[in-house]
């Protein structure tokens, strides 16, 4: 089957180009920097190689604010690490395959653990704007899956308790919750947010979950870090620019935590 029809073959082809461009046959860890998380990269070290995502086959240039659209190869405490500064979102209209292409490329490049970051709107009144929380579980409310056919992937423990434990070794006060992914790009109504709170959601966003599904199919262990950038149901509403600004302030503080977890893997 050609790579045009087989997304796994397309990912392997892209991983081969990645290996050629970075001069490194394998990477062990992936970090995906979501909205506003770019400053966290400073703590990971100087990239050995950095290139535009669009230099690799199958990647789209991110369109969301706060997504630089680069791929970097970094040695984090001696651990070969891929850093994606940005991601493709489902609301961009390309379908689920491009959303998870980067994850499949990482798996083909040897990655077996990933740190996925994002920004969220909190459904909990005991969380504060600027607070970072761990993703313990998720709700896929997009109506789609990146998997096609009889690929029966067990998501019972999609988000690694082991990796959450490593994160708490650096930040013991980290809380955790359930991340609900909506398709977007519009933000939810008050009634929708209230319904999601009642069915078990702690935070809302428009990314990460489809990547997590693809990762677990390929045996990648997951750590999720999410920044509270808005409190749902507030009269002031949600300002997209403020979402990014809040995440940027938090990301700089959490970069060393990500680096520490990678070195302990």
From TrEMBL:
Transmembrane segments annotated in the record for this chain: none
Organism name: Intrasporangium chromatireducens Q5-1
Entry's family note: Belongs to the PNP/MTAP phosphorylase family.
Catalytic activity: a purine 2'-deoxy-D-ribonucleoside + phosphate = a purine nucleobase + 2-deoxy-alpha-D-ribose 1-phosphate
Gene Ontology annotations of biological process type: nucleoside metabolic process
Gene3D superfamilies membership: Nucleoside phosphorylase domain (3.40.50.1580)
Coiled coil spans: none
Key words, A-Z: Glycosyltransferase, Transferase
Domain of life, source organism: Bacteria
Pathway(s) of this molecule: Purine metabolism; purine nucleoside salvage
EC top class named in words: transferase
Domain Nucleoside phosphorylase as annotated: residue spans: 30-262
GO MF annotations, alphabetized: purine-nucleoside phosphorylase activity
Known function: The purine nucleoside phosphorylases catalyze the phosphorolytic breakdown of the N-glycosidic bond in the beta-(deoxy)ribonucleoside molecules, with the formation of the corresponding free purine bases and pentose-1-phosphate. Cleaves guanosine, inosine, 2'-deoxyguanosine and 2'-deoxyinosine.
Known EC number: 2.4.2.1
Gene Ontology CC entries for this record: cytoplasm
Protein name (database record): Purine nucleoside phosphorylase
InterPro entries per UniProt: Nucleoside_phosphorylase_d, Nucleoside_phosphorylase_sf, Purine_phosphorylase
